[in-house]
Structures are given as structure tokens and as C-alpha cells.
Amino acid sequence: MDTFFGISGRFQTPATLIFLILGAALATLSWAPFNLWPLALVTLVIFHQAIATASVKQVVWRSMLFGLVMNLSGIYWLYVSMHEHGGASPFLATLMVVGFCIFLAVVLFLPFVYLYARIWRDAPTGLTLGFAAMWVLNEWYRSWILTGFPWLYFGYTQTEASLAPWAPVIGTFGLTFVLAFTAGVISQWINQIKHGRASKKALISQTLIVALLWIAPFGLKQVEWVTRKDDTPVKVALIQPNLSLQEKWNPAMFQPILNYFRQTTEELTDQDIVIWPETAIPRNYHRVTGYLDVIDTEGQASNTSVILGIPSKWRKDDRIVSHNSIISIGAGKGIYHKQKLVPFGEYVPLEDWIRGLIQFFDLPMSHFRPGPENQEMLKAGNIEIAPFICYEVVYPDLVSKAAEHADIFLTVSNDAWFGESIGPLQHLQMAQMRALENGRYLLRGTNTGVTVVVGPDGKIIEQLPQFERGVLKTEVYAMKGLTPLARYGTLPVVLLSAFIAVILFLSKRSFARRPGDNANDPNTD
């Protein structure tokens, strides 16, 4: 029988609807900037209650509703870039955001919930372990399908919370697994108390596992996965110019922008590394070589590495290819081309079909091509730096793959596209998680904020206020050693979840239920 927190009958459907919408909306408060992480558990318990005993048909529409509301609440800020900076009308921008959220709910979320309802939950322990595996496989799928949109992962709620010491071991996906498994067990206890018919043996065993998972961080906190390469501090300065998009791409502002960066950098000759943000110079690399030569010469004279974002064009196979790039000059050297491009922001899918339909598709940077894999680290003196441009830092495996050769992480961004919304703060939280997962200092240089330096524990060391011009100066250290996550990536947790899914499928086929048993009864777990 379908129940929701013990409610059945005519009040059950409206109660489920109200709580489902409320729980999905509240999920946003568990991520940055609110960081009310217990709400992640509340949301997951509500969702588990809504689908644990429902018919497959009910699971389908409830999941679509939940996914739509959670995504609308969590990534509404896409509207800002589409309307305020992309030129789309309010109606069209709203339509595009809603359409994208429907896509996320139906195409990227629903298939896994359907498998859970159809197969996994009916197996022994499927209501809890299957629920956790479902969330991990869904998040993993979203990280790569159609270039990926790895946003709103529940594991990020633990960046500075109770389970944070697990991050260097199991990563974001593993944290999601722990949260979902915990929520499933809590939900099953609610069902047990309400129904009082099932044996408590399996549920008690799972509760003990949950307790161990939440106690383990006290011990993991004492483990030093990485250490300093040496005790010599690296002095870094990050420039936050705070330019609006209108100023940045206004031809009349081009020379003042160049003057500002040069003059500010000349005042930082006592620093080892100076960071400019993404596309700090809004002009192609080959058109400002004279200017860059001056910065390079001055940097060499003061033994300062200047690392800056700039668009670049290169000839490849008899054609010109554009990249979103970072270069290191002065006492440093190297160039990096962005690998993970933002759809519609940096490249246009099906370009020949849809370019020009609305002004949004003709943003100044919508013509880039991805850089090659396995690019070399940037060098700043004898420091090896792993660079990531904007969106790239949200990909766990892309970052962990670089940790083996990196002393320090660097990410540059221009979150002005999203105004004063929560989008840039969610983006920052994901960057913090990458530092925590891999045990590296992370420098985050941005145009309008948030410009920060993050420690190997994922906590912010220094920070500039958003939407203010300024320079952040601090000291960091080159790190050595690899965390388990950096060594093995996310694959172990994904494979474990897939293994659980397969075992649940096989056990469902062989599980003989007594006559009259209901496969969807919460007490079968």
C-alpha cells in the first residue's frame, strides 16, 4: 500500500504533493551560500518516502515534479545570463530555463528513478542501498552526458560539514552515497515505526553501518594524506578588476583595462605569482604580443610569474582554431587551453542549425574549441600549477587526474554572467571541494568575485568581497602526495554503485516472496 510518512487514504496524495515540492525547493538551502546541510537529508528522506511504496506510475510523475522543482530552485540563476546578458526576452529566458530543468528532470534523472522503482527497491535491502546507488549513478551520468552538467550534487553540502573528512577518500559521489543511504535508513525507520510489522534485524544492521559512516570522519580527520613539499611559502596575489560585462567588451575600455592590469602588476613585484582572471585581456593573444612582451620582461626582472586568461587563435590542420586560454609569463612559462566548454556560452551545439536564433547564442565567446587532453602544467618558477578555467573545476575526475603532477591548483573565472545570484557561490563551493578532495591549495582568480585562496582542507583562507576592485595577497605552499581520491578518481564509488545495482537486480529475480507479500511494502527491506 502506498503511504507517505504513515499517511494513507484521501489525504495521502495532497500531503505527498505538498511535501515533495517543499522538500525539493528546500534542497537549495543545503548548498552554498546557505549551507544548511541537514536539509539535504530532509529532502532525501521526503523523496524516499514519496517513491518507496508508490506504484511505478506514481514514481514517474513524482520524480519529474521533484526534479523540476529542485532544479528550478537551484539553478534559476541561468535566467540572469540568458536575459540580462544574453539578450533573450524575459519570456524566452524563462522558457529556456524551465525547458532545461525539464530536460534535467526527465532525461537525466527519471531513468534512474524508474530503474529503482521497477527493479532495485524490490530486492532485499534495495529500498536503502538501491536508493544510494541510484543517486550516485544519476550524478555520475550527469557529469558526462552531452558534455555534462555536474551541478547540485548532494555531496557538495558536506564541503565544510560533518562528512568532509570522507572527501579525500570517496569524493563527492561517495558523500552523496552516504547521505542517500542515511536518508533511506531514516525513512525506513519511519515506516517501521508506523507499520510495526517487519523484522528489525536488517534495519538495525544498516543503522550500525550508518553510525560507522558518520563516526569515521573523527578518525579520518587525523590522517595526513598530503604534506608540504617544503616549508618555503609561495607569495601569491590575485587581481579582481570588477569589470561589468559591458565594460569588459566595450572597445573604448580596452586600453584602460590594459593599463589597469599593468599598473597593478607593477605594484606586486614582491610577489612570486600574480593571477589575472579569465579572459582578463578581451582581445586575441596574437593581437597583444607587444603588451605581453612588456609584462613578460618586467616579470622576469622581478622574478614574478604572471598568469593570465586570454582568448587565443592557432592554426590547426589548415584552419584557425580559437581557444579560451591561460598563459604563464615572466618567471613562469606555459599555455593551457580550456577542455570543458560551456554549451551556448563558449560553443554552440548544432551551430549551423541554431546560431543567430537569438542574441544569446552570439555571446563574445561562443566560438571556442576544446583544448587537447593531457596538457602540461603551467610553471611559475619551480612550482607546477594545474590550471582550470571556470566550469572545468566542477569536474571531479578532470581535477583529480591533474593532482599527480600539480603542486598547486589554479582556477580562473568570470562569474559576472550570473550577477548577484547564488550561482557564483555554488561555483565557489565546488572549487573548495576539489581542493579538499585532492589536498591542494587552490587559487581562484575572478573578474567580479568570489576571488579566494582555499586551503588543502577545503576551507577559505583569504577572500575578497564580491563586486569590489581589489588585490588579494597571501601565502600558500606547494604540496606533495596523493589522496585516495586523487589516486583512483571517482571510479571506485561509481563501480560500487553499479555493482550494488546488478546484485539487487539478480537478488530480486531469486528472492522468493511469501504469498500475499507486497514487493513495494516498506517492511520488506
Automatic annotation (TrEMBL):
<feature type="transmembrane region" description="Helical">
    <location>
        <begin position="59"/>
        <end position="79"/>
    </location>
</feature>
<feature type="domain" description="CN hydrolase">
    <location>
        <begin position="239"/>
        <end position="478"/>
    </location>
</feature>
<dbReference type="GO" id="GO:0005886">
    <property type="term" value="C:plasma membrane"/>
</dbReference>
<feature type="transmembrane region" description="Helical">
    <location>
        <begin position="485"/>
        <end position="506"/>
    </location>
</feature>
<feature type="transmembrane region" description="Helical">
    <location>
        <begin position="129"/>
        <end position="154"/>
    </location>
</feature>
<keyword id="KW-0812">Transmembrane</keyword>
<keyword id="KW-0472">Membrane</keyword>
<feature type="transmembrane region" description="Helical">
    <location>
        <begin position="166"/>
        <end position="190"/>
    </location>
</feature>
<dbReference type="InterPro" id="IPR045378">
    <property type="entry name" value="LNT_N"/>
</dbReference>
<keyword id="KW-0012">Acyltransferase</keyword>
<dbReference type="Pfam" id="PF00795">
    <property type="entry name" value="CN_hydrolase"/>
</dbReference>
<comment type="function">
    <text>Catalyzes the phospholipid dependent N-acylation of the N-terminal cysteine of apolipoprotein, the last step in lipoprotein maturation.</text>
</comment>
<protein>
    <recommendedName>
        <fullName>Apolipoprotein N-acyltransferase</fullName>
        <ecNumber>2.3.1.269</ecNumber>
    </recommendedName>
</protein>
<dbReference type="GO" id="GO:0042158">
    <property type="term" value="P:lipoprotein biosynthetic process"/>
</dbReference>
<feature type="transmembrane region" description="Helical">
    <location>
        <begin position="91"/>
        <end position="117"/>
    </location>
</feature>
<dbReference type="InterPro" id="IPR003010">
    <property type="entry name" value="C-N_Hydrolase"/>
</dbReference>
<dbReference type="InterPro" id="IPR004563">
    <property type="entry name" value="Apolipo_AcylTrfase"/>
</dbReference>
<keyword id="KW-0449">Lipoprotein</keyword>
<dbReference type="InterPro" id="IPR036526">
    <property type="entry name" value="C-N_Hydrolase_sf"/>
</dbReference>
<comment type="similarity">
    <text>Belongs to the CN hydrolase family. Apolipoprotein N-acyltransferase subfamily.</text>
</comment>
<feature type="transmembrane region" description="Helical">
    <location>
        <begin position="202"/>
        <end position="220"/>
    </location>
</feature>
<dbReference type="Pfam" id="PF20154">
    <property type="entry name" value="LNT_N"/>
</dbReference>
<comment type="pathway">
    <text>Protein modification; lipoprotein biosynthesis (N-acyl transfer).</text>
</comment>
<keyword id="KW-1133">Transmembrane helix</keyword>
<feature type="transmembrane region" description="Helical">
    <location>
        <begin position="17"/>
        <end position="47"/>
    </location>
</feature>
<keyword id="KW-0808">Transferase</keyword>
<dbReference type="GO" id="GO:0016410">
    <property type="term" value="F:N-acyltransferase activity"/>
</dbReference>
<keyword id="KW-1003">Cell membrane</keyword>
